[in-house]
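Usage example:
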Amino acid sequence: MKLVVSAQNEIEAPSPPQRPDNELWLHTDLLEKVCGWRLKPEGLCRAEVCVPIAPELRERFVDHEAVHASGLWAALDRPVVHDRSFSTWVLGEGADERSRPLVIGEAPEFTLPDLDGIEHSLSDFRGRKVFLATWASW
Amino acid sequence: MWQKLYEELESQGLTVLTVAMDSRPGASRRYIERARPTHPSLIDSNHLVAELYNMTNVPQAVWIDEKGHLVRPTETAGFSISRKFRDVRKHYLEAIRDWAAKGEQSKFVQSSAEASERMPKFSPKLALAHATFHLGQALSKHGNKEEALEVIRKAVELHPQSWNFYRQMKNLEKPWKASGPAYFARAISRAFKGEEYYPLADMPGMAEILGKDGSK
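Running the assembly step on the lines above writes:
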């Protein structure tokens, strides 16, 4: 199974047993590896942020060590899409998440490789003006 | 064009950072190698920058100041399909030079609040379009061309303004044939609906180049 999170990470993971509803359930360790969210007694946590899960929802989103990742993603207002065979899943970024840097006027951060495979981040250029331009070879 | 600008403005504290919206892995390589850029020239095979900055075509650009704040929003980087395209490009390059020389005093610079306000807005539908595009890209990368094409067509439907998505779809249909007659027919038909292929950057002095009535 392939899991794609945002535009950059693609993770190859063993396919979990298919559920009758065809939804994506991930082991809590894998969920954390894929997107940083960890299931804890107080809820789902990423860094210092915890989203509590009401007891009635816990039943819907949590099954022992497995988390209903696709349901959770949708509940967080983020897009989740998959291929026909349910073997490639994309857990996308939501509109709110994408808008966040712009609310404070910040240029969204990214890291991309050059032709030699050396990675560059936008923040490497702090202290200089950056003219950021796109092109394509078609 | 950007390499020359970089050489000229590098010593004035301005970095030209170019990002290739690569449609096939390595497709940009021969262009970059031929141009021998010394400025940072990055490869963005999954169109991450286009997603983050809500870009729909190339070339588009943003201006970012020393603190990492936006001072001009996503806009066409000096291109035009009008007869005055050389003047448009010249004016745009002059604006960048003015910014390099005068910094925040340049009349072309906006406050980060204004630049952010002018950024194209994100929406749940756009977020779904990008997720769908990534699914198509992943399928394409792993050789499932037929389903990849179907998925990317869906992304184009969700985000018809994106020429980047459309170009990718055309390339999947027929490699290296994105710029065929169908592509230009679409550009023309959308132009009739008031959607410019290269909307003019909204900066001082630009609209005047095409005349007060906006005619070309």
